[in-house]
Description:
- 37% of the residues lie in helices and 13% in strands.
- It has helices at 10-15, 18-26, 50-56, 85-93, 126-135, 152-166, 193-201, 220-232, 250-263, 281-302, and strands at 32-38, 61-65, 97-101, 139-142, 171-175, 206-210, 236-241, 267-270.
- Strand 2, helix 4 and strand 3 form a beta-alpha-beta unit.
- An 8-stranded parallel beta barrel has the order 1-2-3-4-5-6-7-8, surrounded by 9 helices.
- By secondary structure, it is α/β, with parallel strands linked by helices.
Amino acid sequence: MAKRLLSCAASDITALGRDDLLHAIANSEGRVIACETIGTLQPMLGDVTNAEFAASQGADLLLLNMFDVQHPVIHALPPCAPEDTVRTLKRLTGRPIGINLEPVNRTSEVDTDPMWALTEGRRATAENAVRAADMGVDFILLTGNPGIGVSNDAILDTLRVFKACVGDRVILAAGKMHAAGVPSEGGENILTVSDVNAFLDAGADIILLPAPGTVPGITTEYARTLIRAAHTRNALAMTAIGTSQEGADTATIRQIALQCKMAGADVHHLGDAGYGGMALPENIFAYSVAVRGVRHTYHRMAQSINR
Length: 307
């Protein structure tokens, strides 16, 4: 049986295979923190990557948003070959690394802020999925950035493709944190129990849903209903703060954290929009303390990646 992820040292994490990592997350009983960062923006600390900064505050999993697998960029990363970008970040942080890929048909894209404009290396294609697995990515999240136009049907179709081409190599997560530019999939329609079951049928290992209090209509009770549907199928659930509330005050963060835990979250995701590029570091710490206390929080923060 795999160790709990929150107790794993870097050497333990390096040795975890796909299934072992899933078991390590499940064995942590709702005490795993995932932090999303953007490597293409100026890092908050200048010469330290946002991913390293998030890891230092207690993140167990690191999720790279807007990561282009064809032209990878993470500012402040030491020089390395493009194909070694993810492995270099894993060596520096001692954490499992995931990326977002966005299932969007070229004919269905909508106008959005230029910041979120989709590049070829961020599209959820089979080619990009295989490239990500070859780069050492541990998990792929099929989701959408603001205004991109990612629908649940597109996620479902892509899951089937990804399950066939990389499903035995990487963990597949799927869902949305907000409507992602599809007005008909707002509020409670962002994700339904039918969507959860369809995603699981198509090969998802982890279901992503908005954290209670982050999207209108997503209550603790509704989140609990979706998470129960995932758990009934022996899948994991990740609640997500994707509405810039990762930049709210710590009292708000603690409230969201406890609601997510009451709903049954296996993984607690904090988005990348503090000031921009990652959650506020004090909120990563506050969230971690709320769901697992200071002992596990400081243990994750203090443990050397050389162990």
